[in-house]
Amino acid sequence: MHYLKTVLLVLTVFCFTNCAKKYTHVNPPYQFYSSLSSDKNVAFQYKYNVLNKKYTRRELRSYVRLASVKIVNNSGKDLVFGTDINVVKSDGSDVQVLDNITLHKVLKQKVAPYVAYILLSPLYLDLNGKVVPIGLAVGPGLVAGNIGLSAKANKDFKRELMHYNLMNKTIKDGETAYGIIGLMAPNYDALSIKVN
Fold it and tell me: Which residues 6+ apart lie within 8 Å of 25 measured at CB?
């Protein structure tokens, strides 16, 4: 009986700590930006660490750094992000900016691991000689719930990435643009912009 309690405790902890997580929106216009740089009257502000825990773990493992950015164009002309405006490290070296479709593929929650919860199906509870097959509800319920939640979270994440996509976006003179960018970098490097 002690063995069964231990196994149930371990399974419970595993189930509640390894579940799919809801996506928390980044909302770039509402972020507090503390990093500021400028080049040729174009102001650039950014903030790292804007994702929730589940996505942050994937970010760290894949050497992708996601940042919320704010660009204010007061250059006197319209500029295109990715052509006229490029993100660089503060020392001037280049940074690889990922397109948002690739960024979504790299950082989205994976669905396949949640199928393993089906292994809880044979779980039963013995109540004074009466056997209750709780696994028939728990296993498939956890699978369906986690797959549904991760699918919705991934959909919300992709929608926000596409809404705040800056690649090839024209930023008009006097306009403030907000976006989400992904950088291929092992560290959270200090960033700046280079205006051509």
Answer: 156, 160
Q: Taking residues 192-196, what's their average pLDDT?
A: 92
Name the phi and psi angles at 74, rounded to 5.
-125, 35
Confidence label for 12 from pLDDT (cuts 50, 70 and 90)? low
What pLDDT, on a 0 to 100 scale, did the predictor assign at position 2? 54
- Spatial contact of 175 and 83, defined as CB atoms under 8 Å apart: no
Looking up tokens 């509402």, which residue turns up?
30
The C-alpha torsion from 156 through 32 and 57 to 162, rounded to 10°, is 30
Tokens, residue 10: 């371990």
- Residue 75 is classified by DSSP as S
Does residue 88 come out as left (phi exceeding 0), alpha (psi in the -120 to 50 range) or beta?
beta
Q: Which of 52-66, 67-81, 119-133, 147-161 has the highest mean pLDDT?
A: 67-81
